[in-house]
UniProtKB/TrEMBL annotation:
<dbReference type="Pfam" id="PF12796">
    <property type="entry name" value="Ank_2"/>
</dbReference>
<dbReference type="InterPro" id="IPR002110">
    <property type="entry name" value="Ankyrin_rpt"/>
</dbReference>
<feature type="repeat" description="ANK">
    <location>
        <begin position="169"/>
        <end position="202"/>
    </location>
</feature>
<keyword id="KW-0040">ANK repeat</keyword>
<protein>
    <submittedName>
        <fullName>Uncharacterized protein</fullName>
    </submittedName>
</protein>
<keyword id="KW-0677">Repeat</keyword>
<feature type="repeat" description="ANK">
    <location>
        <begin position="335"/>
        <end position="361"/>
    </location>
</feature>
<feature type="repeat" description="ANK">
    <location>
        <begin position="136"/>
        <end position="168"/>
    </location>
</feature>
<dbReference type="InterPro" id="IPR036770">
    <property type="entry name" value="Ankyrin_rpt-contain_sf"/>
</dbReference>
């Protein structure tokens, strides 16, 4: 009876409420004491709470759609204002609350316009954050450093740009600044702003090893003065090996003067002097050999593969340069081969002749080496 009466009440709104009411009525008919906490009022409150939550969910979805529409409209207005260079409208849009949800759009504009100092100044004054990522994951400071815009870099740093933030590619502002040919002013600005001189990029390369690879001798000097470490970077590469591999004599000289170890192998077992001797350009090889020997390189040291400089030499000039500093023309490599045998294996008659002139052992027992060396020697007298 009670359950039937309950069904006629306006506050009974769904089947769950009916079941609760029916259960309470059965308990009362059975003589169970009435529990006020599970009465009809509680049923009504539970039902109303359920409906309210459902209404809020529908309202949230509608609000989200409206917000997305307003965001798309704001982006459209912003892009149109930038396209027509209506900077008054840009400043007005940047001050709207909707701009908070569109930071990547504003950062994208800052990155694209980072070659125009007046526009950059307008955007920064309008409140565009110089540390925000653009749509493609680039930062304005990294872009300005890469393009070598000294004044724009200074403006971005003054506006609070962090010199140690990387973009999605792992590029750091300092490494991009080093990449610019002999543009050390930006490098100095970044270091003065607190850039970490030893911070590695996404490939575990440091600014010093990158500067050595690109042959930026002035940048190397600035980095060393700022405390750049000469130890191998995250990839096990040393700056001196990088400069030697690329034949940058001036960069290698700056590194040697800065205290780089000339007898240190990199993670691949490469020794600077052995790398220098392998250059096919005689002038580059001779200059690098002299620089490295001046820095303490041992002419008879073996690299990680068991080879000395004379075992890989490519030119007669390099042979003479090594012989002048004490390289042994009869030194055996880890496989028991002499420099003459290595030159024979490479078919390099020029080096074989230079080795004879430097005093190579005429009793070299490598098959065919002695005959070829003597033949070449007598035919060219």
């Amino acid at each position: 009876m009670l359950a039937r009466q309950a069904l006629t009440g306006d506050f009974i709104l769904d089947i769950r409420t009916y079941n609760l009411v029916r259960g309470q009525a059965q308990k009362r008919l059975a003589g169970v004491p009435h529990d006020k906490r599970t009465g009809l009022l509680r049923c009504r409150r539970q039902t109303e709470r359920t409906r309210r939550r459902e209404a809020q969910g529908k309202e949230s979805e509608a609000i989200c759609q409206a917000k997305a529409h307003r965001q798309r409209a704001w982006i459209s207005w912003w892009e149109e204002a930038v396209q027509h260079e209506n900077w008054d409208a840009v400043v007005m849009l940047a001050g709207m609350p909707r701009a908070i949800q569109c930071q990547s759009t504003m950062a994208n504009t800052l990155v694209e316009r980072c070659t125009d100092k007046p526009v950059v100044a307008i955007l920064l004054d309008a409140g565009v954050n110089p540390n925000d990522l653009s749509r493609n994951g680039t930062r304005a400071l990294v872009q300005a450093c890469m393009k070598g815009h000294t004044k724009i870099v200074r403006a971005l740093l003054a506006a609070g740009a962090d010199p140690n933030l990387v973009d999605v590619s792992g590029d750091t502002p300092l490494i991009k600044a080093v990449w610019r040919r002999e543009n050390t002013e930006i490098v100095r600005q970044l270091l003065e702003a607190g850039a970490d001189v030893n911070m590695m990029d996404g490939y575990k390369r440091t600014p010093l090893t990158k500067a050595a690879w690109w042959g930026r001798s002035e940048a190397i000097q600035v980095l060393l003065q700022a405390g750049a470490q000469l130890q191998p970077d995250g990839g096990g590469l040393t700056a001196l090996i990088e400069a030697t591999l690329k034949g940058h004599v001036a960069a290698a000289s700056v590194l040697v003067d800065g205290g780089a170890a000339c007898d240190q192998c990199d993670s691949h077992g490469r020794l600077p002097l052995v790398v220098a001797a392998a250059w096919e350009d005689a002038a580059v090889a001779e200059k690098l050999i002299r620089v490295l020997v001046r820095g303490g390189a041992l002419p008879n040291a073996l690299d990680g593969s068991g080879l000395a400089a004379l075992h890989v030499v490519r030119t007669s000039g390099a042979v003479r340069a090594l012989a002048e500093v004490g390289a042994e023309v009869g030194l055996m490599d880890i496989a028991g081969r002499s420099p003459a045998r290595c030159a024979f294996d490479q078919g390099n008659r020029e080096v074989m002749q230079a080795l004879i002139e430097a005093g190579a052992d005429a009793g070299d027992n490598a098959a065919g080496v002695l005959a070829i060396m003597k033949d070449y020697h007598f035919r060219n007298q």
